Amino acid sequence: MTDFEKLQQMDIKDVHKKTCITIARLQDIMNKNFDNMDSATRTYGFIKILERELQLDLKDWVQEYNHYKQYGNIQSHEMVYTEENKQDTVNQDVLGQQDSHISLTTDPLPAIDTWKQKDNVHTKIQKKNIKRNSTKNNNKHLNNTIEISIPQTKSSYKTVWIIMIAVIIILIVAGIYFINLASHTNSHNAIQQNNMQQKNIENKQAHPQISLIDALSDKEDIDMDSETQTPLSTQQQSQSVTVDSKEDMQTSSLNVQRTLTIVPKKEVWFAWVDTVKKTRGEKYTKTPYTLTLTNNTAFHFGNAILTLEIDGKKYEYNQYSITYLLYDFQEGFKPITQKEYRALGAK
After folding, report:
1. Alpha carbon of 77 to those of 41, 72, 120, 138: distances in Å?
2. Fewer C-beta neighbours within 10 Å, C or N terminus of the chain?
3. pTM for this predicted structure
4. What confidence score (pLDDT) does residue 99 get?
5. Whose CA is closest to 215, among 309, 280, 275, 286?
């Protein structure tokens, strides 16, 4: 009993469970329904699974299937084999007849000819067998190459797709990295520029670019604190000047002296003017400086980052801009405008 006959006697459901091949396809294989088997690669795969899972040898079935694919009919395949067998039998009969004829003849020369004919017939039969075996081997070789080449092409396609996907992912990751790096550097440069601008502004405010002549001149300069201070009308300015002059007269009559200590937190330039005696002075210092005040005094500071100490009181200022102050013996320090400062006697 051949392995294919063993397969036909097995339960088709058990074979389906072991091999996971559909029942319809198993029926086509068992019944040799080659017409229903369009894909040769799938058919070879099914046969390999059956041979592996059921421990069978289905080479004869594969040869019939290959012959069907080549000639298109199973019967023609069977007829070829029957005709070849008939020719072999005929050749054998001829050889037998020649042997009997040789035995009957007494002439040695005809016997030699018959032996030569017999050898020729044997060589022809051997050549036919060799050709038939070669064709079978070629078919097997083609089947094996088909079975081997198709999975390789599939695997090669898979590897190509995997490589392409990996390259795309690497490019995306690299692009994201460089974009983030560029944005980080831009933000860092922007922060540095902002810091430099702030430092420049602080330096300009702490060290105003103003000369002593410009600070004491009568030109119309822009007041740095004009935006924060409300401008006074001419009547209010005249009233304040008259009131200050009256108070100055009162304080001068009393001949009161007070000691003012200017404690700069940063280096500062300042100027002052006695509103009664019209005496002026200026100083650039980093250390505390002491003045003796006998009358109401107006001050012009390059920056007001400092502390003023007088009569046991402290006045704290943290203004980076130019500041004008008036010390009143009765009210203490109060801010004034540039025009008021000049009206009180400053140049």
Report:
1. 22, 9, 28, 16
2. N
3. 0.31
4. 45
5. 280
